[in-house]
Design goal:
Bound molecules: zinc ion
Number of domains: 1
Shape: elongated
Radius of gyration: 21 Å
Largest sheet: none
Strand content: under 5%
C-alpha cells in the first residue's frame, strides 16, 4: 500500500486502536517504510507527552486548606476560587510547537484535541473535588 493510504491509520496504529487485521496491514507497511516509521515515532512522542501532562498530579500548597478556612471565616461575602490546572500550560504549548508538522495532519489534530480535552476535563474535575466550596 502507498503511504497516503496508510497515513490516516497511523494515529490509531500508534494508539493501538485499530482492528487487528487493519493493524497488521499498517504494521507491515510501517516496517518497510522509513517515512511512516518516522511519522509513527512522532505521533508516539505526542501521545506520550500528552499522557504525561494529563497524568501529572499536583500537591496542593501546604497551608492552602487553612488559608481558605481562615479567609472564608473572616469574610462573609462570596468568594470564587479559580481552578488550579494540574499542569503547566507552557508544557502543552511546548509540546504542540515541538510537533507542529505532526499536528498539522488531520489525524494528529484529533489526537491532540482528544488529549487536550481529557487533560482539561481532569483538571476541572480535580479542581472541583480538591477545593471545598466557599461560602
Ligand atoms: Zn509509508
Amino acid at each position: 500500500m502507498r503511504c497516503d493510504q496508510i497515513r490516516p491509520y497511523l494515529p490509531g496504529f500508534v494508539g493501538g486502536d485499530l482492528r487487528p487485521d487493519t493493524g497488521d496491514v499498517v504494521a507491515a507497511h510501517v516496517a518497510t517504510c522509513v517515512s511512516c516509521t518516522a511519522e509513527s515515532a512522532s505521533l508516539e512522542r505526542v501521545r506520550t507527552g500528552l499522557a504525561v501532562v494529563a497524568a501529572r498530579e499536583v500537591e496542593p500548597p501546604a497551608g492552602l486548606l487553612e488559608g481558605i478556612l481562615e479567609r472564608t471565616s473572616e469574610h462573609t461575602h462570596r468568594r470564587v476560587l479559580a481552578p488550579v490546572l494540574p499542569f503547566a500550560v507552557d508544557d502543552v504549548v511546548r509540546l504542540v510547537s515541538d510537533h507542529k508538522d505532526t499536528i498539522a495532519s488531520a489525524a494528529g489534530v484529533a489526537v491532540v484535541a482528544a488529549g487536550a480535552a481529557y487533560a482539561l476535563w481532569r483538571a476541572v474535575r480535580g479542581a472541583r473535588s480538591a477545593q471545598p466550596a466557599t461560602s
